[in-house]
Amino acid sequence: MSDCLFCKIIAGDIPSTKVYEDDAIYAFRDINPQAPTHVLVIPKTHIASVNGVCADNSAVIAHIFEVIPTIAKAEGLVSGYRVVSNCGPDAGQTVHHLHFHILGGKELSLDMA
Ligand code: 5GP
Ligand code: ZN
């Protein structure tokens, strides 16, 4: 999608700090980190949110979750990490291209409210 921030990042039109890339997915550092390690993992195909996941595109989601442990290991997140996807306004989703936050590098708060 031409007006999507993360599609522009995938295309290289907006710079980002790459952490991992393959044919189907891209991972990069969040511009406003909420933890010592804050990586975003996105499918290269535009999916707006978790609500856009269906049988036709779910293989890339499985692939993301196959790669997340590799990214976490490379980032040195030996004590654990959190994976979050905000879906819709009540969750505070601000970028409408499906993304998974990987947060770690400190003991994370359990306050999810
Ligand atoms: P959301 O709030 O939609 O779950 O997460 C969007 C995330 O994208 C936020 O954590 C925000 O800091 C990050 N973000 C927004 N714009 C940019 C950008 O231009 N570059 C990078 N690397 N991250 C961004
Ligand atoms: Zn997009």
What is the SS-derived class?
alpha+beta
List each distinct ligand once: guanosine-5'-monophosphate, zinc ion
Which percent range describes the beta-strand content?
A: 15-25%
Helix content: 10-25%
Order of helices and strands: HEEEHEE
Number of DSSP helices?
A: 2
The strand line-up of the biggest sheet is: 1-2-3-5-4
Low-confidence stretches: none
By DSSP, the count of extended strands is: 5
Shape: globular
Query: What is the residue-averaged pLDDT?
Result: 96
Rounded Rg: 14 Å
Layout of SSEs?
Layout: H1 5-11, E1 18-21, E2 25-29, E3 37-43, H2 58-74, E4 81-84, E5 100-104
Antiparallel strand pairs: 1-2, 2-3, 3-5, 4-5
The structure holds guanosine-5'-monophosphate (5GP) and zinc ion.
Explain the overall architecture.
The chain is α+β, with helices and mostly antiparallel strands. The protein is 21% helix and 22% strand. The protein has two helices and five strands; from the N terminus they run H-E-E-E-H-E-E. It has helices at residues 5-11, 58-74; strands at 18-21, 25-29, 37-43, 81-84, 100-104. The chain has a five-stranded antiparallel β-sheet with strand order 1-2-3-5-4, covered by helices on one side. It is globular, with a radius of gyration of 14 Å. The structure holds guanosine-5'-monophosphate (5GP) and zinc ion. Guanosine-5'-monophosphate (5GP) binds at residues 5, 14, 16, 28-32, 40, 86, 92-95.
